[in-house]
Amino acid sequence: MLKSLLIANRGEIACRIIRTARDMGVRTVAVYSDADAKALHVRSADEAVHIGPSPARESYLVGEKIIAAAKATGAEAIHPGYGFLSENAEFAQSVIDAGLIWVGPKPASIRAMGLKDAAKKLMDAAGVPTTPGYLGDNQDPDFLAEQAANIGYPVLIKAVAGGGGKGMRKVDAPVDFADALVSCKREAAASFGNDVVLLEKWIESPRHIEVQVFGDSHGNVVHLFERDCSLQRRHQKVIEEAPAPGMDEATREAVCGAAVRAAKAVDYEGAGTIEFIADGSEGLRADRIWFMEMNTRLQVEHPVTEEITGVDLVEWQLRVASGEPIPLRQDELSINGWAMEARLYAEDPAKGFLPSTGRLEHLVFGDADRIETGVEQGGAVSPFYDPMIAKIVCHGETRSDAISSLAQAVSETEVWPVRTNAGFLVRALWSDSFVEADLDTGFIARAGDALIPPSEPEDALFDVAARLVQDSTEQARIAGFRLNAAQAHRVTLTSAGETRTVDIAAIGDRVISVGDDTVDCYLPAHTEAAVVTGYVSGDQAILFADGTAYAFDLVARGSGHAAAGSGSILSPMPGKVIAVDVLAGQSVTKGQKLLTLEAMKMEHSLVAPFDGVVAELNASEGAQVQVEALLVRIEAAPE
């Protein structure tokens, strides 16, 4: 067994690896950029090495710095985690050439599966079913448009070097193909340094089924069953579960068997995932499930597999990298219960899920079986990296149990002032389609605004905030005291541009009881009493209802933000304007794209909030903009 390990990553996956390594008695070395100097993974490791400035391309993506850090600290091995250099065959080879142990598959296996077109050809040869499409080298736009027409719309344009939902575009009609191809290639070049794409037939009722595989240097390959990752937004996984609902034993055997064949075809060692696309229109059937790609690393969603199998996949990685065989045979692995994972992101659903960055002044997680995170209260979400705050994982005897536990854990999560998708996750988990396992990758898009929690607090929350202020602050109690007269408890609050004065005595039964930081109350969306949590800080009360945060100012004052109906389009974060789609004076309609902002390696479209005219345009292509910069102002069209 190796004695020391450098983790070439950051955030929650670095913390996850450190935890298992410590349990195994392995000394850990962290690496960090300027932005991560005080990060949790840095403080959790036995030793830490600074590797450069905040941008990943100058730190976490510089293999030479990471190898030098390993040598300087006497680390025997390098674990890449996921993302960054985890699927970079050249880096893996450099680690090996430096005399270090690479905790991952052989470079040749990474290369074989690294490009989606080559991988699909290899799988065809191995007898693994693949989706119809175009995998050729000709990248001429007109030729690709002809191939798309031959395949039949809708089609999916996919970067051959892509991953993580980047470099992918669904195209519904020929008229949209050219623009989608340009956008896809541009994002692929920025994210992966490779703009080559392939085309696939878009499956109308697609489910994303993936199989966890594991191989060792002794020729053994096993699977650890399947996961369903169909709940996605813009090809990014949102909620994952294991096993897949509706998977019968015969189909499971066929799909998992195909995954093992795929791994053996590339002489695979370590943890990997074979991803399949399934046509779920008639349930899960072995003849309607096709290979998509292989991720030659540990997956973000690996905890759900660990929860149903009782296996620590990071421990297996370290053992196999040390030359040991896989700890369990296939017949020793079984499924126990159901597990679900929700990805808690620092993003604002009310603003099109644009990332939200900044200091985590308040961070409290709900009661879950596992919280995988790389941040803590007082830390920060940086604009330089992925905005995931945590993975919230729950296990139950049945799928229904897992849903209930996860929904409660997410609803109890409190984050401020950074915005999160917690309220969105709660609504998704309790939606009828999800509860009934009526799933496909288009579920979130179809549900639309029904999954978006309101950005303005409902009426009852003003009462709750007032009651919390009245009961939680000495200042409010003193202000309401009158000699020889009944106390006058009146609290004036401002939230989302609306100001109200609440008479505490008039609240009545809507607020049942107040604890140290909780309020039992009745909310219109609940059939029973709901628990709203919150706290008072200075002249502001913060409430958390069903995972969504609401701020109430105790003194009417401007927040510095444009009012929701003002038509002012502010930059939600620092970034670069890569496209401007309107001109000053132009008429626009609600939802029309105004410009595209590139930030955190993703493209974000900013759209018109209502019908109107572009009264002010302060953005130009190529310009760098700061957070809350006024980019466009729309004046409403006269009624």
Automatic annotation (TrEMBL):
Cofactor dependency: biotin
Domain Lipoyl-binding: 561-635
Entry keyword set: ATP-binding, Biotin, Ligase, Nucleotide-binding
Residue intervals of the ATP-grasp domain: 120-322
Lineage top rank: taxon: Bacteria
Domain Biotin carboxylation: 1-449
This protein's name: 3-methylcrotonyl-CoA carboxylase subunit alpha
Lineage of producing organism: Bacteria, Pseudomonadati, Pseudomonadota, Alphaproteobacteria, Sphingomonadales
